[in-house]
Write a sequence for this structure.
């Protein structure tokens, strides 16, 4: 067995997407990276698992039974633990392109983005319009409202935060989105789907917050650009599930010299005063046929996910999530093989939206005929979690199998890392896409490296032995 | 249903028939103990070069090479090297995902390297594509031509194991290039040219997208979502 180096530029703990992007980027930039996971698989909280592993994770079956057997080959299933989709013009896409990790992965469109109007038996599901034709047919707006929406969207297209002549006479830095909506005379229902299905806010607090307009407009632009890129919906999704993403970045890190060790527990983080300077760890053999290997090594910095630093993180909220196996598409989505459906909070008397993300065999995540729907929201009560997700379950119709655990805590680091040299990521939040994940990547990079991460041209000027 | 062809979609590669000619693309992965000559075999096959002082692979190549089986048939290999992730048993499943073929290499002068090769073959048969074509390559044949006593694994033993396990088998030398082309050609001949591409529903099929830099895109939502 090769020796572990006595010192690394960075030790990265956990192979979730955030950590894998960071180790990929650091390796490309010439740093010597040791990347460790306590689990025997890549992905951490952002892994995709097979159906047997899912049953075992949630334990919702009687001992001795093997309920996964009726679902075909277990390895035909790649079920995401975190429900997210990629915005096709989002920052994760940019990072995938600039690092060439796109070589290892294949993507497909998500067929449609939908929004619910009303609740209970009167609820309807409508497609969020992606082009003029769809907008004209959309049941979301009346004929006059469509015109107002058109002029709003045109204005968003010409909006430039630095050019006050494009601000319609509004003081854009202090105005609220309410003022903007009022200016265009948009109805409440339209504001609802603009804010929640296009700007993808999970609550309504953006409407009255002063100075929130530029950010909202940027989000609407991102939505529009993402839809325009491939059509139909703003989302794309990797074949074989989201768990492929961290693996792709891990390979990037490895081809630039990163060292990978799964199944390795951290016994101790070593400090010099307040600063972390190294680790001692034990690599366990998966088959169990060789002795565990203990080692100690130094590092200029340590990065990792919250699970490695329970004492250095705080809980900032809880996500509720239910993974459901269906054998039919989602009603109201034109039999789409994949979809996102947003149930805005206002429609069902909540503070936070409910999201449903559906993928299927079209994305090689399950055998033909099955659909995986994940219903999620931010928890608002301390009990009745099942009830909080009920409006989502109503949309699913018959459910073959439901996996729902206790509320999932969301962690954030207590400190920046400036004092202890430990740079901790945030948990994957309740948003439906990866924009907050890439924000976190950039923030951690900035904290750890002292300068901004420039995504464009990341691999330019780097040399590879084999000429990848 | 997403049927609209994306901008810049790769054509339905994988396998195509135009006129009388056939073109098929396959993913090939390399496995084997460190220093048996995996990268050297690829370097010989792709660039017809050899390097006596090759460093252990980091910066692993993702190389492609085509071979013509006959006037009408061209096979393109998309060759993946492990990038060292196997060193601590941390190879990602993505590596073998959809691999159509694998070359598992051992060093005929190192007995333990065949044991390691056997482990990889087991792992492939368990984890990879059911129809994966596996070739076993006993490399560094040149070392035993002058000094037969250096040989640690007899041809007969390895051949018997390969036959039992349904593998293609060659003894090769990346240094002299002996049997290197033959190895890859034999794999190409065994591949199901009429189906398959390296990854099953190739991008460019229904709803597949190819991600490219967005350089030309200056559109804002205004002229794209023409609601
Ligand atoms: C990764 C993680 C971070 C947490 N951070 C906070 C926090 O910042 N604030 C808060 O109030 N609560 C946090 N919790 C919850 C808290 O640790 C306990 O779950 C809770 O306080 C109940 O304590 P316990 O003594 O019953 O559980 P414990 O026995 O302390 O452990 C709870 C679980 O955490 C796992 N765990 C413990 N230490 C580690 C470690 N170093 N690496 C990986 N897994 C570990 C254990 O295996 C077990 O599954 C965290 C939990 C985890 C798993
Ligand atoms: N004599 C001889 N030496 C070879 C042959 N093939 C490879 N070597 C030498 O063996 C050493 C290792 O070769 P590599 O191709 O780097 O081996 P590898 O399997 O890719 O090793 P890792 O990347 O560490 O897994 C190098 O010094 C090569 O020059 C061969 O056919 N004959
Ligand atoms: Mg090599």
């Amino acid at each position: 067995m090769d020796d572990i180096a006595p010192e690394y530029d960075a030790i990265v703990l956990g192979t979730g997407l955030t950590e894998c992007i960071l180790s990929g980027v650091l390796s490309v930039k010439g740093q010597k990276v040791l990347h460790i996971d306590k689990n025997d698989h890549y992905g951490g909280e952002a892994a995709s698992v097979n159906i047997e592993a899912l049953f075992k994770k949630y334990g919702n079956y009687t001992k001795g039974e093997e309920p996964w057997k009726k679902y075909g080959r277990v390895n035909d299933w790649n079920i995401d633990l975190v429900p997210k989709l990629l915005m096709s013009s989002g920052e994760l896409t940019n990072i995938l392109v600039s690092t060439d990790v796109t070589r290892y992965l294949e993507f497909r469109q998500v067929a449609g983005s939908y929004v619910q109007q009303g609740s209970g038996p009167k609820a309807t599901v409508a497609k969020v319009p992606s082009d003029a034709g769809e907008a004209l047919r959309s049941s979301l707006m009346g004929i006059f409202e469509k015109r107002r929406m058109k002029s709003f969207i045109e204005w968003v297209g010409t909006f430039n935060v630095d050019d006050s002549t494009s601000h319609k006479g509004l003081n854009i830095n202090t105005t609220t989105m309410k003022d903007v909506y009022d200016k265009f005379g948009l109805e409440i229902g339209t504001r609802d789907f603009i804010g929640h299905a296009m700007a993808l806010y999970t609550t309504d607090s953006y409407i009255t917050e002063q100075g929130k307009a530029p950010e909202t407009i940027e989000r609407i632009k991102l939505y529009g650009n993402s839809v325009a890129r491939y059509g139909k919906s703003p989302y794309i999704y990797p074949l074989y599930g989201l768990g492929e993403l961290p693996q792709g970045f891990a390979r990037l890190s490895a081809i630039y010299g990163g060292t990978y060790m799964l199944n390795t527990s951290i016994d101790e983080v070593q400090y010099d005063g307040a600063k972390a300077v190294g680790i001692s760890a034990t690599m366990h053999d998966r088959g169990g046929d060789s002795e565990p290997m203990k080692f100690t090594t130094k590092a200029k910095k340590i990065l990792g996910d919250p699970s490695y630093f329970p004492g250095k993180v705080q809980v900032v909220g809880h996500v509720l999530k239910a993974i459901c196996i269906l054998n039919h598409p989602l009603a109201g989505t034109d039999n789409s093989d994949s979809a996102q459906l947003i149930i805005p909070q206002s429609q069902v008397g909540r503070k936070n939206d409910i999201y449903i993300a559906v993928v299927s065999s079209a994305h090689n995540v399950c055998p033909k005929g099955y659909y995986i729907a994940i219903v999620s929201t931010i928890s608002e009560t301390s009990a009745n979690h099942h009830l909080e997700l009920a409006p989502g379950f109503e949309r699913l119709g018959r459910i073959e199998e439901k996996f729902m655990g206790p509320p999932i805590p969301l962690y954030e680091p207590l400190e920046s890392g400036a004092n202890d040299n430990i740079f901790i990521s945030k948990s994957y939040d309740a948003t439906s896409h990866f924009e907050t994940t890439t924000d976190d990547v950039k923030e951690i990079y900035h904290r750890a490296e002292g300068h901004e991460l420039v995504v464009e041209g990341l691999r330019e000027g780097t040399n590879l032995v084999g000429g990848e | 249903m997403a049927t609209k062809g994306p901008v810049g979609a790769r054509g339905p590669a994988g396998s195509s028939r135009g006129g009388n000619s056939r073109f098929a693309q396959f993913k090939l992965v390399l496995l084997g103990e460190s220093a048996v000559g995996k990268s050297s075999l690829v370097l010989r096959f792709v660039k017809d070069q050899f390097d006596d002082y090759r460093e252990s692979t980091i910066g692993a190549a993702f190389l492609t090479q085509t071979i013509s089986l006959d006037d009408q048939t061209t096979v393109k290999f998309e060759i993946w090297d492990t990038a060292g992730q196997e060193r601590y048993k941390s190879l990602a499943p993505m590596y073998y995902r959809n691999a159509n073929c694998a070359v598992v290499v051992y060093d005929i002068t190192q007995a333990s390297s065949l044991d390691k090769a056997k482990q990889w073959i087991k792992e492939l048969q368990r984890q990879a594509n059911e129809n994966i074509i596996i070739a076993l390559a006993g490399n560094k044949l040149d070392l035993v031509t002058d000094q037969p006593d250096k040989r640690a694994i007899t041809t007969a033993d390895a051949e018997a194991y390969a036959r039992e396990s349904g593998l293609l088998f060659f003894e090769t030398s990346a240094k002299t290039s002996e049997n290197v082309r033959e190895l890859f050609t034999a794999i190409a001949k065994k591949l199901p040219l009429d189906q398959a591409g390296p990854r099953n529903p190739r991008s460019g099929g229904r709803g597949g997208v190819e991600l490219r830099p967005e350089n030309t895109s200056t559109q804002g939502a205004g002229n794209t979502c023409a609601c």
Observations:
- Confidence is low (pLDDT under 50) at residues 1-13, 196-205, 215-227 of chain B.
- Helices of chain B lie at 38-47, 93-96, 111-127, 142-146, 155-165, 180-190, 221-224.
- The longest helix of chain B spans residues 111-127.
- Chain B touches chain A through 52 residues (CB under 8 Å).
